[in-house]
């Protein structure tokens, strides 16, 4: 009886164990579901945080870009203002320099007028003792003589330039003709060398031709002798 009850008891124990395992599995499934729900909630929270962070970053980038744009505009404005200021300072400095140059020129002209005032007195004295009526006539006559003198100098300069050009052309023509003569001499030397070479070649080929004729005569004699010997042997 004990032997027949043992499998039944073991089966009941196995069923009990199976129920316990099933219950434990169901508990694990519930725990897993709860954990998955928590993970899903956490995942939604993370997505929401990511979207919020992305929106915040976009807003921050927009603000940074606007700040950069404003800073660049301010920098450009300051640069233009500084360039205008430098330009005005440069123009003021140039105006001061021009004013200083004009002052120096005025002073030099004033000194020159004071220096040449004695010549006015001299010209007045010249008018008094000459046939000229006033100083302007003297100056006109002087300018005319100066123009004539300048024309003479220009004419001499032109003649000098023409003479120089003629000399340059003569030198160029002489150089070209000397080069042609040298070329003709070189060609003549080359032709003479070719003539000498041709003469040597003619002499060489004449010698060769004489040797060929001599050899031909010798061979003809040998051929006649051979024919006579063959004829004698035949007979």
UniProtKB/TrEMBL annotation:
One of its GO terms (biological process) is spermatid development. It holds the Pfam family DUF4200. Keywords: Coiled coil. Residues 11-128 form the DUF4200 domain. One of its GO terms (cellular component) is cytoskeleton. Residues 85-112, 145-201 form a coiled coil. It comes from the Eukaryota. PANTHER family: COILED-COIL DOMAIN-CONTAINING PROTEIN 42 (PTHR21683:SF8), COILED-COIL DOMAIN-CONTAINING PROTEIN 42 LIKE-2-LIKE-RELATED (PTHR21683). This is CCD42 protein. It comes from Probosciger aterrimus (Palm cockatoo). The lineage of its organism: Eukaryota, Metazoa, Chordata, Craniata, Vertebrata.
